[in-house]
Design a protein that fits this description.
904 residues; alpha/beta; 7-stranded mixed beta sheet; 6-stranded mixed barrel; 19% strand; binds iron/sulfur cluster
């Protein structure tokens, strides 16, 4: 059987077809009819079904679980008891401390219908605007940038604009990795129109930057200076569209005066790039008949993110390159339904259908629609503020849904302190295996991808109807149903009202109310219905009553949703980073994404093959910075910031300038010792959007002298071993816990001890062997106490099932390959019982996998290239890059034999 849905990962919003037998999801493929992807999926979307295997499903949260006292264990309870208990706690907090003593922290992974009822629950029923979302961490500067300049949070472009652009400016976005299917479209457009110019602005030479005609490797946080200087050049070289500016904008003269100072030379000094390159970028942008910009977290996750966004939008307004094919400022959303959340006002400073909280008429409209006396006028707490208020004890009851703030917020030590002392924490989630779950007093099992229905909106304003393919496991329920059931119970405990605010029996009923709220607004979907979405497929808003298809491009008439109808130029001055480097923290930490992981890895992290491209947490550093500190490739280093520190393996990278370092944001406390990278990031945020500067912090890196190493590897046929081993992460100076394998999953625990740390005692090794299930009578064991070497191996059914190595880890890759892929164990005994024996040669270690679809490793690709194959021959030989294409940028880079080092 087949059911149409969307990929739940990034904001590209690819359509998928779920293959299932009505009880179990068995496969997934791209939906050829979906306009976001036309059948394509990336490595993440293409392995969605592997996040629903029986082994993974066995670990799902199946029943409500309640902790009656903070120190007590959670116990299984019925839904009635769980929701009555929660309603009682919330009602008591509201009556004793007021509506603002409770808060909701929700997620861009929810459906629009889920978002709508959460928002109505907080702002309509309870009377608090304390409902914020993890979209605050990824999108809110895009929202405020659009509102400041264009008057509304309405991205004007469509993906099809990529096909028409003559110049594409990608800023602060590694599209090749974070939005891979969109990057495929960019590659197609460039192949079809070879004269198209690609400019990439990024401090790192990412695979996206590597593909560019011009890479501007600006210093972190200097975007505004760059775009102001580009505008300076556009003015100086008469490339602005003065007629457009006169007819459709306001505030240009003030900005013109401001950018007078931003000469290319001045900006080059600030940005650390060549002045000539800034001039070239401005000329390409200005001279191109159609110019499109794509941008993401590099602009948004900044203490001046609103101005970063406005500065790039200014380039489009000044040249009139907006509202036309191939033109416009196009913010890419990070999450699958960040846009839907924005539509229903699912942030603490927004109201439904792009209404303003500060506008009394808008508040009155919403109150009328909901049938309440009023909605509060004061903005609620934003993400960082919210957890600060929890820390101060002002929030007595906190409801978290489908997100993991204990991993994703900045300054995590403080967030953990806050969660630990919050009197009542509810977590609505698919799995209890997240950092936040540790703090939950009440765990509510939610339906996940493939198990629920509703609508989602992608980056290009396209709404897709999502249907459930299989029932949710155990007692898990759809998110909107949980909210509605809770809201009705809370209503019964609050002052009586004539009728429930939550009469919904279906997701469609919620959608219809949301639709009514949009009529007459810029995102009007008065003509849209579930039936139309099913008949005609996904549609872009607005789609007004009477229309049958959506609107692909906005502002073609030059009329903007501002009081004057004109777009606004705002004052965008370069400002320094929130946290400057200093002699004790002389390096810049840049955070970003991996190709095959998504967010906190709660979904992609359970799929073994998605670990293969980046198997371990690591910090990338410029080789000169490593040399200066005596750090060699693979060494353990301590990364120290002003709020915390973590240990990581070091990896040399010429994609970074000196003094720049890079750590992927995904690795958290489930995969490595400590809290993960957000132990170091700072809560400083943009004054308008309140989006924190997650992209940058000042750090120092020091070599960590290790005394011993240990590796435990075990095939996990039943599932659950990764979660069972997590407590071991805290038992060593440093440890990582990852997955390996392809057809079978192997859990890998690597641990290190400092130079003064005693070698693990036999008792500890025995305990670890037992924890990994190696301690059977068939286990082969070798000990060399004098050298501190211990080796254990378990062979079951003539196949290596697991191994434990202490102080002799050279055989790790060989053994891992044997466990994951099978193979002869004949040489194992010989090696095992010889203390210093070199691991037998069964070919070179495969190392990281570049092509996930066809399981082709970097070492195999390099060997073929060394043998003289070109890219085409390579692909013919082993098919790499011929399916999803996510690895194509890297294959091209490898085939070019060397990455162009980023400018020093
Ligand atoms: Fe999913 Fe990949 Fe498409 Fe993003 S690009 S929606 S992760 S398949």
């Amino acid at each position: 059987m087949e059911t149409k849905s969307t990929c739940p990962y990034c904001g590209v919003g690819c359509g998928v077809i779920i293959e299932h037998d009505a009880t179990r999801i068995t496969g997934v493929r791209g939906d050829p009819a979906h306009p976001a992807n036309f059948g394509r999926l990336c490595t993440k979307g293409g392995t969605l079904h592997l996040s629903m295997t029986p082994q993974v499903m066995a670990q799902r949260l199946m029943h409500p679980q309640l902790r009656r006292e903070k120190a007590a264990a959670r116990e299984r309870v019925s839904w009635d008891e769980a929701l009555d208990h929660a309603a009682e706690k919330f009602a008591r907090a509201i009556s004793e401390h007021g509506p603002d003593s409770v808060a909701f922290y929700i997620s861009g992974q929810l459906m629009t219908e889920d978002y709508y009822v959460f928002n109505k629950l907080a702002k309509g029923l309870i009377g608090t605007n304390n409902v914020d979302t993890n979209s605050r961490l990824c999108m809110s500067s895009a929202v405020s940038g659009y509102k400041a300049t264009l008057g509304a949070d309405s991205p004007p472009c469509s993906y099809e604009d990529i096909d028409h652009a003559d110049c594409l400016l990608i800023a602060g976005a590694n599209t090749a990795w974070a939005h891979p299917v969109l990057f495929r479209r960019i590659e197609d457009a460039r192949a079809a129109r070879p004269d198209m110019k690609l400019i990439v602005v990024d401090p790192r030479r990412t695979d996206t930057a590597e593909a560019a005609d011009l890479h501007l490797a600006i210093l972190p946080g200097t975007d505004i200076a760059l775009y102001n200087a580009m505008l300076h050049v556009l003015l100086w070289e008469d490339l602005c569209d003065l007629d457009y500016i006169r007819a459709h904008t306001e505030g240009f003269d003030a900005l013109k005066a401001l950018v007078r100072d931003y000469t290319p030379a001045m900006a080059a000094d600030i940005c650390g790039v060549k002045a000539d390159d800034i001039v070239t970028a401005a000329r390409w942008f200005g001279q191109a008949p159609a110019a499109l910009s794509l941008y993401c977290q590099g602009l948004n996750q900044s203490s001046h993110g609103t101005d970063n966004n406005a500065a790039i939008i200014h380039l489009h307004l000044a040249t009139g390159k907006i509202g036309k094919p191939g033109c416009g400022p196009f913010s890419l959303t990070g999450q699958p339904n960040a846009m839907g959340g924005r539509e229903v006002g699912g942030l603490s400073n927004l109201l439904p259908a792009h209404r303003d909280m500060a506008n009394p008429e808008h508040r009155a409209e919403v109150a009328r629609l909901w049938g309440v006396a009023d909605v509060p006028a004061e903005p609620g707490l934003t993400a960082v503020e919210l957890f600060e208020a929890v820390h101060r004890g002002e929030i007595k009851a906190l409801w978290i849904a489908c997100t993991n703030p204990a991993q994703s917020l900045p300054d995590l030590t403080r967030v953990h302190e806050a969660l630990a002392k919050c009197p009542f924490v509810v977590l609505q989630e698919v799995s209890a295996d997240t950092d936040t779950a540790t703090f939950a007093d009440l765990l509510l099992p939610a339906a996940g991808w493939g198990e629920k229905e509703g609508t989602v909106t992608n980056s290009e304003r396209r709404i897709t109807r999502v249907k459930a393919a299989v029932p949710a496991p155990g007692e898990a329920r759809a998110d909107w149903k949980i909210v509605v059931d809770f809201a009705r119970r809370l209503e019964a405990r609050l002052p009586a009202r004539a009728a429930t605010l939550f009469p919904y029996e279906t997701a469609e009923a919620i959608f219809n109310e949301h639709r009514a709220s949009t009529v007459g607004r810029d995102l009007d979907i008065g003509g849209l219905s579930y039936a139309l979405l099913e008949q005609s497929g996904p549609q872009q808003w607005p789609l007004r009553e009477g229309a049958t298809v959506g609107t692909s491009r906005l502002y073609g008439d030059g009329v903007f949703p501002t009081a004057s109808g004109r777009a606004r130029f705002t004052s965008t001055q370069h400002r320094p980073l929130a946290e400057a480097t200093d002699p004790r923290h002389p390096l810049h930490l840049n955070t970003g994404r991996l190709r095959d992981q998504w967010h906190g890895m709660s979904r992609t992290g359970v799929v073994a093959r998605l670990h293969a491209h980046a198997p371990e947490p690591a910090i990338e550093m410029n080789p000169r910075d490593m040399e200066r500190r005596g750090i060699a490739e693979g060494d353990l280093v301590r990364l120290k910031g002003k709020r915390g520190s973590i240990l990581l393996r070091a990896a040399a990278s010429t994609t970074l300038r000196p003094a720049q370092t890079y750590v992927p944001m995904h690795w958290g406390g489930r995969y490595m010792s400590g809290l993960g990278i957000n132990a170091l990031t700072l809560p400083a945020n943009d004054p308008v959007s309140h989006q924190p500067e997650l992209k940058h912090a000042a750090v120092q890196v020091e070599k960590f002298a290790t005394g011993w190493q240990l590796v435990a590897m075990r095939r996990d046929d039943e599932g659950g071993l990764h979660a069972a081993l997590q407590p071991w992460l805290a038992r060593f100076d440093h440890a990582t816990l990852t997955l390996a394998g392809r057809e079978s999953t192997v859990v890998v625990l690597r641990a290190w001890g400092g130079e003064n740390s005693p070698v693990p005692a036999p008792e500890l090794l025995a305990e670890l062997a037992a924890a990994t299930g190696l301690d059977s009578p068939q286990m082969l064991a070798f000990n060399d106490a004098r050298r501190g070497i211990a080796k254990r191996a378990l062979i079951a059914d003539d196949r290596l099932a697991g191994a434990l190595l202490c102080n002799e880890t050279r055989a790790t890759d060989w053994l891992l390959d044997l466990i994951a892929r099978g193979g002869s164990t004949a040489e194992l005994r010989k090696w095992l019982f010889a203390p210093l024996a070199t691991p037998p040669s069964s070919g070179p270690a495969r190392g990281r996998i570049v092509c996930n679809c066809f399981d082709v490793s970097e070492s195999e690709i390099r060997a073929d290239l060394e043998a003289g194959l070109d890219l085409a021959a390579l692909q013919k030989k082993n098919k790499c890059g011929t399916n999803c294409g996510s690895c194509l940028p890297e294959l091209r880079r490898l085939a070019a034999k060397a990455t162009v080092p980023v400018a020093a």
